[in-house]
Predict the 3D structure of the following.
Amino acid sequence: MTIQGKVVTVTGASSGIGEATARHLASRGAVVVLGARRTDRLDRVVAEIEEDGGTAAAVPVDVTDPDDLKALTATAVDRFGRLDVLVGNAGITRIGPMADLDVAGWSAMVDVNVNGILHGIAAALPIFRRQGSGHLVTVVSTSGLKIVPTQAVYAGTKNAVRTFLEALRQESTDGVLRTTSISPGYVRTELIDNAVDDPAVREQARQHMADLGIDPSAVARAIGFAIDQPDDVEIGDLTIRPTRQG
Ligand code: NDP
């Protein structure tokens, strides 16, 4: 089975890459279950997908709460009969040197970017095992591949997730589970909006993103490519960045 008819849950589907992914997969015939905290935005995306003839549902999800991930995956199974793919996309970033001691920001990144993915894995794996198949897709980052100053903790969270998926892959050679880590470079989204407190630095970062970043639909298509493979083919790591990114 390729994308058509697959039941896919997407975390962080209220904006940016997650929203674009939900729209793209729905346009290709997947049933999509969207999770995030801003439910007004989720409802709007669901309504627009349905207007275009797609099938979608929204679930209020804070990925730092394991019960919310259970509710998200359970909605897929209860309403649509199964869960084929979990796209663990929800994430946040904070930019700044470690010497700034943004301890609250570090904790928030670990909570959302690392624990949020682990809660998703814990909710989805038993369903995948019961069904005999499933696919975990996570949105990590080129920040984890090319380490640069000011993104230490963010890069660390993304590399932690990459590590979980590689271990899971090696533990799952019975063919039940496929794992994919997508590493985007700069993408024009709202990610930067809460990344830094200083308005001047934030504006500079936003401008940089606007000048260099690619459209989130490009990442959505990459995720679609990974999901579209036949069951015996796994796209493990996929990097997608602006052609001009260094
Ligand atoms: P956005 O800020 O547009 O999207 C982030 C999404 O995560 C939102 O839908 C937000 O929804 C959700 N989110 C944040 N915190 C939580 C939470 N506690 N519970 C549930 N959902 C949450 O940015 P992007 O689309 O860029 O980010 C998506 C992913 O892509 C992130 O993991 C990011 O690290 C990664 N990425 C982005 C890059 C870029 O250049 N933009 C580059 C590389 C990776 P809500 O606030 O409604 O809960």
The mean pLDDT is 97.
